[in-house]
Amino acid sequence: MSPMLEVTGLGHTYEAKDGAHTAISGLSFTVENGELLCVVGPSGCGKSTLLRAISGLIRPSEGTVSLHGTPVEGVPADLAVVFQDYSRSLFPWLSVQRNVEFPLRDLPRAERHERAEEALAAVGLSAAARKHPWQLSGGMQQRVAIARALAYRPALLLMDEPFASVDAQTRFELEDLLLRVRREQETTVMLVTHDIDESVYLGDRVLVLSKSPATAVAALDVPLGAEREQIATRASEEFVDLRARVAGLLQAREPVEA
Ligand code: ADP
Ligand code: MG
């Protein structure tokens, strides 16, 4: 069976007035069905560029991206993206319920409604369905963005530093929410972050990228089991060891044996 996502020899160079800038170079990896892959790399290394290439928003200069064995041309239908900046990802004039239903507009009304209600319940926002985004806190708005992606039931959920702009407590809650819903709905997730601890806490596997231009330095298995707990897991010896290994790999520029 082909992997859910296969990225092969990916490279991307931005052409700007003041010269060309290579953001990604020779990047290859796979995301297996049902896996939660965290991709960690320094700020500015090319993580968002990678997500744009996978989601068909930009055409990469080199290499290929395949979803279920089919090369991606344009924006694939069975993929959803959650961006970092919740304040710009929701429509302020639509209610929470309508925001979540928006990508489902081709479905019959009853099904649209049911899926949105289910997703809002999963993120603990049933009571806010009739509110508007501006009536909610930042953490709640990001929950709406996550609910919208889940209601769409994508084969692959891509997340670009989705918890980077919320406070620490909310971040912990949203991380645990993601772990719970991906278990319940068996979603395949690829999440990019610059946060080493977050990559280890959430991932089944962590792909470490080099500084710009991003290339794969190593991929590490995270043998922490499915049950994770913010205080105990982060304090465990395995966790501390893994985060030290990821931190060490982040210094490397060339692929190394993990
Ligand atoms: P990350 O998400 O890892 O912080 P990005 O993918 O946003 O990194 O950017 C990688 C590099 O590409 C950065 O040096 C950034 O300045 C550059 N870059 C990003 N978008 C563009 C663009 N549209 N045009 C030119 N350069 C860009
Ligand atoms: Mg980015």
Q: Would you write up a description of this structure?
A:
The protein has helices at 47-54, 86-89, 96-101, 109-122, 138-151, 168-185, 196-202, 230-235, 237-250, and strands spanning 5-16, 19-31, 36-40, 62-67, 70-71, 79-82, 156-160, 188-193, 205-209, 216-221. Strand 9 and strand 10 (216-221) form a beta hairpin. Strands 6-7-8-3-9-10 form a six-stranded mixed β-sheet, sandwiched between helices. It is 35% helix and 25% strand. The mean pLDDT is 93. The chain contains nine helices and ten strands. With 258 residues, the protein is an alpha/beta fold. It has a domain at 1-76 and 190-258: Rossmann fold (3-Layer(aba) Sandwich). The site of magnesium ion has 4 residues, from helix 1.
CATH superfamily of the domain at 1-76 and 190-258: P-loop containing nucleotide triphosphate hydrolases
The residue ranges in which pLDDT falls below 50 over 5 or more consecutive positions are: none
Strand percent estimate: 15-25%
Query: What is the N-to-C order of secondary-structure elements (H for helix, E for strand)?
Result: EEEHEEEHHHHEHEHEEHH
Q: Major sheet: order of its strands?
A: 6-7-8-3-9-10
SSE-based structural type: alpha/beta
What small molecules does the structure contain? adenosine-5'-diphosphate, magnesium ion
Number of helices: 9
CATH class of the domain at 1-76 and 190-258: Alpha Beta
Pfam families: ABC_tran
InterPro entries: AAA+_ATPase, ABC_transporter-like_ATP-bd, ABC_transporter-like_CS, ABC_transporter_ATP-bind, P-loop_NTPase
GO molecular function, one term: ATP binding
Organism: Actinokineospora fastidiosa
